[in-house]
Design brief:
With about 220 residues, this protein is α/β, with parallel strands linked by helices. Helices cover about 50% and strands about 10% of the residues. This is Response regulator transcription factor.
Length: about 220
């Protein structure tokens, strides 16, 4: 797995590089000290994953994430956002823009490795409940809510049901069990929903489900 490390602190990058260089199956193919360099490294190296710090000088990680996810040539490049705070509007905007998930900077090394594997395999890092809580927190705010987009109206009733289950954090296998369908059919439904909504991965599906009002945050 080829990884680009983007963080304005050289010591942080060195720590991540040391971790990945000593783990089988990982290669650090580039480093960046700001967002502009992160975009450049992504275009040069076409890594599997960019580990992206949010707060960097010049172009920040949010702007860099937007550029990477909007570039058709980088469609296969995933972004894993790193942050100091778990409830952060910058992180929400990064997920909205197409980042595949986020981790706190004080995450244990084994969790970073697991996250990279999950994202590189095409899944969004949505297992931690904090991620869904973050999306629910910001997507439900009036300034973020938007009427049912036309693309959402293209979904069949079953596809809307599947989208709601994805937003609830269910895996393809759990969706299959819930709907009494095969896992292959579940994967097909999720894939079709992603295609119709133009979503890069499940993280964007969750954002769209909340923003459109298809799914509402649970009352506290």
């Amino acid at each position: 797995m080829r990884v680009v490390l983007a963080d304005d602190q050289a010591l942080v990058r060195a720590g991540f590089r040391l971790l990945l260089d000593t783990e089988d199956g990982f290669e650090v193919c580039g480093e960046a000290g700001d967002g502009a360099q992160a975009v450049l490294r992504a275009r040069e190296q076409l890594p599997d994953v960019v580990v992206m710090d949010i707060r960097m000088p010049g172009m920040d990680g949010l702007a860099a994430t937007r550029q990477i996810t909007a570039d058709p040539a980088l469609a296969e490049v995933k972004v894993l956002v790193l942050t100091t705070f778990d409830v952060d509007e910058y992180v929400f905007e990064a997920l909205r823009a197409g980042a595949s998930g986020f981790l706190l900077k004080d995450t244990e090394p084994v969790e970073l490795l697991r996250a990279l594997r999950v994202i590189a395999e095409g899944e969004a890092l949505l297992a931690p409940t904090v991620t869904r809580r973050l999306i629910a927190e910001f997507a439900a705010r009036p300034e973020h809510r938007r009427p049912d987009p036309g693309t959402l109206r293209e979904l069949t009733d079953r596809e809307r049901e599947v989208l709601a289950l994805v937003a609830g954090g269910l895996s393809n296998e759990e969706i299959a069990e819930h709907l009494t369908i095969s896992p292959a059919t579940s994967r097909t439904h999720v894939s079709r929903v992603m295609t119709k909504l133009g979503a890069r991965d499940r993280a964007q599906l969750v954002v769209l489900a909340y923003e459109s009002g298809l799914v509402s945050p649970r009352p506290r």
